[in-house]
Amino acid sequence: MYKDHRDFLKDSIRKRVDFTRTAQSRGVAPPPPQRPVPPDAPRIPLVPPESRKSIPGADLETAIARRKSRRRYSSEPLSMDELSFLLWATQGLRSSARGGGIFRTVPSAGNRHPFETYVLAFRVTGLEHAIYRYLPLEHALVEVARRPGLELSLVRAAFGQEFCGASAATFVWTVVPERTEWRYAEASAKVIALDAGHVCQNLYLACEAIGAGTCAVGAYDQELMDELLGLDGDDEFTIYLAPVGKVPTR
Q1: What is the pLDDT of residue 59?
Q2: Which pTM value belongs to this model?
Q3: In this model, does residue 220 exceed pLDDT 90?
């Protein structure tokens, strides 16, 4: 019954893609690694990695051992230090490469990094209750929208999963498929799905360092989530979300 799906997963990229016909091979310029922002749009600077003061850190073995999906959160807000750390850990820049390329804190097939990160901030110290987009090239946020009843709208889009709106902030990753299609054409769907897993696992581990928890969510109404974020649903659309909140002490 599921043979086609299994065959797709087993297909090697080399077998599936004619690399002589990709946009990259035809000399087409790659899509930008970050969606453009109007020059006059106010940026909210985040705390750079070297300046964070309140992140205690966590032994890697301990973080891996403690990692689990958490759906209960306290009312304690996230600090800007903590949100900055989580954003850096999931899509932040690590270093630059030759030719203007960049390396991030997570792996991505062909270094294409097809995701945009949105943050629905409910309880973040210093942030208004709104939707923001992360700008990894600047390590900053830009406000996207302020919507009344934001928590309820998110829960509705998440098929009634109430913990999605009970978090201090909910991360929503969208995908811009063209970034990966430029190099991998028909194989992009497979590698984009793999890349999304890398990103969310980093969030799980980073949460353990700040006494927070998260839970990956793949069940949501595609049209409602895209509408909530103001996406066209074609050139950019939701692919994954994860609420984040402090772990209750009891």
Answers
A1: 86
A2: 0.94
A3: yes
Q: Are 115 and 231 in contact (CB under 8 A)?
A: no
Asked if 68 and 214 touch (Cβ cutoff 8 Å), the reply is no
What is the rounded average pLDDT of the residues 203-230? 97
Using one digit for the tens of pLDDT, what is the confidence trace for 162-212?
A: 999 999 999 999 999 999 999 999 889 989 999 999 999 999 999 999 999
* Residue 3 CA: distances (Å) to CA of 6, 7, 13: 5, 6, 18
The number of CA neighbours under 13 Å toward the Cβ of 54 is 11
Q: Please state, in angstroms and as integers, the Cα–Cα distance from residue 136 to each residue in 32, 116, 121, 171, following that order.
A: 12, 9, 17, 14
62/59 Cα distance (integer angstroms):
5
Contacts of residue 49, Cβ cutoff 8 Å, sequence gap at least 6: 85, 88, 92
Taking the mean position of all CA atoms in its chain, how far away is CA 46? Answer: 16
Count of C-beta atoms within a 10 Å radius of residue 231: 20
- Report the C-alpha gap between 46 and 119 in whole angstroms: 13
Task: Map out the domains of the chain with their CATH numbers.
Answer: 55-246 (3.40.109.10)
